[in-house]
Specification:
Two copies of one chain form a homodimer.
Chain A (H helix, E strand, L loop, with lengths): L6 H8 L5 E2 H11 L8 H13 L3 E6 L6 E6 L1 H25 L3
Antiparallel strand pairs in A: 1-3, 2-3
Chain B binds a DNA duplex through helix 2 and helix 3.
Chain lengths: ~100, ~100
DNA sequence: ATCCTATGCATAGGAATGCGAGGTATTCGA
DNA sequence: TCGAATACCTCGCATTCCTATGCATAGGAT
């Protein structure tokens, strides 16, 4: 199960400190959420393309050994959006908690 | 702003103790979330109809003074789904918090 | 050697969710 | 008397996500 709308934020968080490539970003989200969050490839790649299109990330071809990978790096604009998204998440999830009980 | 997917749960919560009608349910969600959550009518009414269709709520015409209102009452099945949804919300929002920082 | 699994990227089709805009009608206070 | 709040409804659109599918490489098991 996934929370709709949180994926872009989770992607930005995954490359906040250093660039990473799609497949690894998905693994990271799954592991860090202890298996709860599990976005599929058909969701992840379009989301990455959209973020790039919006200028929140840039990408480059990782010429590593053999298999080609596309690495994504967060931009200044992306960092700003991430900060904003974090605040937004706290606000909205807090609001749901107000109603569903348990703070 | 709203969290996609949480509306059915919030509706069920709003009629957990006593029946209520659509317009009032929307007001209640907005007030209890301190204005953060604000689902529109074009979202709310179809959601109510869907819940009824699924047997999670039943409805009846409130023959109150003048204006006709449709009241919704939660069913046994609805109560079970609500309990499940609450647990699901805690699990998934907790997972997002694990990643976005702050527990 | 061959095959399965994991890695790695991508697109297409469809379902679900929510919003805005539009429509109808009543009630109540300024 | 007239506008705002109440109260219900539907349609079209955008966004988000999933499933399925396709392609290709690498590494381990048989």
């Amino acid at each position: 199960m996934n929370l709709r709308g949180t994926l872009p934020t989770l992607i930005l968080e995954a490359i906040e400190r250093e660039p990473n490539h799609g497949y690894s970003i998905a693994q990271r989200i799954k592991k860090r959420s202890r298996g709860v969050l599990d976005f599929k490839e058909g969701t992840l790649y379009p989301a990455l393309h959209k973020l790039e299109n919006e200028g929140l990330v840039t990408s480059y071809e990782g010429a590593e050994k053999g298999r080609p990978r596309r690495y994504y790096r967060i931009t200044e604009a992306g960092l700003a959006v991430l900060a904003n998204d974090r605040a937004e998440w706290r606000k909205v999830s807090g609001a749901v908690n107000l109603i569903l009980g348990e703070a």
